[in-house]
What we know:
Layout: H1 10-38, H2 41-59, H3 80-88
InterPro entries: Spc1/SPCS1
Family: Belongs to the SPCS1 family.
Membrane topology: Multi-pass membrane protein
Amino acid sequence: xxxxxxxxxxxxxxxxxxxxxxxxxxxxxxxxxxxxxxxxxxxxxxxxxxxxxxxxxxxxxxxxxxxxxxxxxxxxxxxxxxxxxxxxxxxxxxxx
Length: 96
């Protein structure tokens, strides 16, 4: 059906966290300064909320910039006990 990626790699997670902290800090600082200049704390809160929304839109979805270095997982090894027991035991026929 649809092939929607739902993951980020480890470096992408770090990049997303760093970006969200920068955006929220920047908007918080600008909001605080602007709110102080016009003497309206509500403007500070609105600007901070705008920064949180922007950071959320840019960092929560797994955008392709956060999936540049995927992990190469090892293939699973077969369990020796399961493999051995299934090949050693002959199948028994049911008698009616």
